[in-house]
């Protein structure tokens, strides 16, 4: 299955070794069908993607070694289950809404998403053929009224409620692990995935690592994320733990929202 990585931090940080670890999964396993990483820069995004294996991409290696400073990062390594291996089917996917670039990356296989997509996509149409991009279209259609009503970000409670609703629609279709960002908040939904022991698909679908604010002056260097700033907080989510630190598995169907390196909403 695909590999996901997301970060929300109080101060700009660079994701380095975390991308190396995702690339290693790409080189060693079945996740050889494309890669992508996006760095929010205010309302805009720097998005890098490729249809080749991340482990064989010079650009992916450079990004993994150097990183791009950002407070919000989303990365994805693809294992194709729906849609051909092509750039249009690589993630994260991006769409503009409310004067911001929104990003979405999904891990899983949503059988029958076409029916839900046709009924609930609105005017958001995918460029490719993946179940993941159809799920993103459904999500954007549900969020659009919130962003159209006000030039400011909609209330977090309203956005979180829509994410909970869409996640509940997706789960019956198959594994629905996803990361979504709107330039301000990182939303992560954990469901189920294939585990490393070769057993059946089961929770957890995502893991969580947090760093509380402190004033000791030490850089934060966890899971390949380096944030050189005092009193900095960070939240990292990934498909599998990327380091020896105490990662917390998300519960089956759990959704979190992280802003400026703090968890600001959580469903159990």
Topology (elements, then pairings):
Elements: E1 3-15, H1 17-28, E2 35-41, E3 44-50, H2 58-66, E4 70-77, E5 93-97, E6 100-107, H3 113-120, H4 131-148, H5 156-170, E7 177-181, E8 186-190, E9 207-211, E10 220-222, E11 225-227, E12 234-238, E13 248-249, E14 254-259, E15 262-267
Antiparallel strand pairs: 1-4, 1-11, 1-12, 2-3, 2-4, 5-6, 6-7, 7-8, 8-14, 9-12, 9-13, 10-11, 14-15
Helix pairs in contact: 1-2, 3-4, 4-5
Summed up, what is this model?
With 268 residues, this protein is an alpha+beta fold. The protein has a single domain (3-267), classed as Aminohydrolase, N-terminal nucleophile (Ntn) domain (Glutamine Phosphoribosylpyrophosphate, subunit 1, domain 1), CATH 3.60.20. Helices cover 23% and strands 33% of the residues.
Give the CATH topology: Glutamine Phosphoribosylpyrophosphate, subunit 1, domain 1
Strand percentage lies at 25-35%
Name the CATH class: Alpha Beta
As an assembly, this protein is single chain
Report on this structure.
The chain has 268 residues and is an alpha+beta fold. It has helices at residues 17-28, 58-66, 113-120, 131-148, 156-170; strands at 3-15, 35-41, 44-50, 70-77, 93-97, 100-107, 177-181, 186-190, 207-211, 220-222, 225-227, 234-238, 248-249, 254-259, 262-267. 50% of the residues are buried.
Keywords:
268 residues, globular, 15 strands, six-stranded antiparallel β-sheet, 5 helices, 33% strand, Glutamine Phosphoribosylpyrophosphate, subunit 1, domain 1, nine-stranded antiparallel β-sheet
């Amino acid at each position: 299955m695909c590999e996901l990585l997301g970060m929300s931090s109080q101060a700009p940080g660079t994701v380095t070794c975390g991308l190396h670890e995702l690339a290693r999964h790409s080189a060693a396993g079945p996740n050889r069908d494309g890669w992508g990483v996006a760095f929010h820069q205010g309302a805009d995004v720097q998005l890098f993607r490729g249809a080749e294996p991340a482990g064989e991409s010079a650009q992916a290696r450079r990004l993994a070694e150097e990183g791009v400073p950002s407070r919000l990062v989303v990365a994805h390594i693809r294992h194709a289950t729906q849609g051909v291996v092509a750039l249009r089917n690589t993630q994260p996917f991006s769409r503009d809404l409310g004067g911001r670039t929104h990003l979405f990356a999904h891990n899983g296989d949503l059988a029958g998403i076409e029916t839900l997509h046709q009924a609930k996509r609105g005017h958001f149409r995918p460029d490719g053929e993946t179940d993941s991009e159809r799920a993103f279209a459904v999500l954007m259609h549900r969020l659009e009224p919130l962003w159209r009503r006000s030039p400011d970000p909609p209330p977090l409670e309203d956005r979180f409620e829509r994410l909970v609703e869409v996640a509940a629609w997706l789960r019956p279709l198959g594994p629905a692990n996803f990361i979504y960002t709107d330039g301000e908040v990182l939303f992560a939904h954990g469901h189920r995935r294939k585990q490393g022991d070769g057993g059946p698909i089961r929770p957890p679908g995502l893991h969580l690592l947090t760093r509380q604010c402190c004033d000791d002056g030490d850089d934060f260097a966890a899971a390949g994320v380096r944030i050189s700033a005092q009193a900095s907080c960070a939240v990292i989510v990934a498909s599998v733990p990327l380091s020896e630190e105490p990662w917390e598995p998300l519960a089956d169907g759990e959704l979190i929202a992280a802003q400026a390196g703090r968890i600001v909403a959580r469903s159990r």
